[in-house]
Known about the structure:
The chain is of the alpha+beta class. The protein is built from 15 helices and ten strands. Helix 1 (about 5-15) packs across helix 2 and helix 1 crosses helix 4 (about 100-115). The two termini are about 35 Å apart.
Amino acid sequence: xxxxxxxxxxxxxxxxxxxxxxxxxxxxxxxxxxxxxxxxxxxxxxxxxxxxxxxxxxxxxxxxxxxxxxxxxxxxxxxxxxxxxxxxxxxxxxxxxxxxxxxxxxxxxxxxxxxxxxxxxxxxxxxxxxxxxxxxxxxxxxxxxxxxxxxxxxxxxxxxxxxxxxxxxxxxxxxxxxxxxxxxxxxxxxxxxxxxxxxxxxxxxxxxxxxxxxxxxxxxxxxxxxxxxxxxxxxxxxxxxxxxxxxxxxxxxxxxxxxxxxxxxxxxxxxxxxxxxxxxxxxxxxxxxxxxxxxxxxxxxxxxxxxxxxxxxxxxxxxxxxxxxxxxxxxxxxxxxxxxxxxxxxxxxxxxxxxxxxxxxxxxxxxxxx
Length: 370
């Protein structure tokens, strides 16, 4: 029987469906658009027929996009409601995109909305990776299981080979042998990540340390490799990891979901430890402290952490003085409506999410109903 695609899955996997959900027009920079040419200190704009653009409303709309002056091969969407508003090449030749704000909003909302499903799938993922880590030798499944466990325990970015090759910035699947140091059951990763930030991540796990060390013994610079049926080393990439997760769960989860889940659980734990704020000023300070803690753990900015890695219902309910009182009713030692195979904090988090009003979780009056 064919599996039914849920709206959430469709939005995450099908850009046309995502554009429709955001009430935007799905576009491509392959269609005729607006171009620009430098004129003195500014630019002149030309329509799809090569004629100078004279519509002042269009020109103002383009200026509001704040397209970087250094971009070349710039394409500008002729429609103000296109899901992509502009594309271009940066000074390193990489293609860059400017998306409609509503496109980001719908994708972010969908990402957070599927946290319950991801939490429910975590025990299955953990059971499968535990099984695959017991395999003999260094087969593909064992190395993929190790990478997924490392994703979960360290929350390191998954990595992109293009960035590793062009920028010498790395993520988990693009790490090189020299980025890992193994000492007994301890592993230390030292590497330059996104935006050139240096990362040092320590981990103590006997099985994972063994797999990392075995991988380092294989020929080649890439760290995470496996031995195929002919005994030849093969590399893995982010798509291999995402395919592995889909195979386990039957759902479209990706490596990025671990970071969203981990950041949200960390934020909830930090706020629980802090307790309720005694005033609006104190509450705001504790929220800012929590966001800063998550940002430090991920090695990014507080703006990025708040927007992408902390479920918005956590902060909004805490700010409304609803979170702490609600969570006191969901003790990790008590009965909670969540699957086995989760930590006490995760069980609290998923139970909290189930009691959040799904219709207001992302609206202007977000509330928690418990």
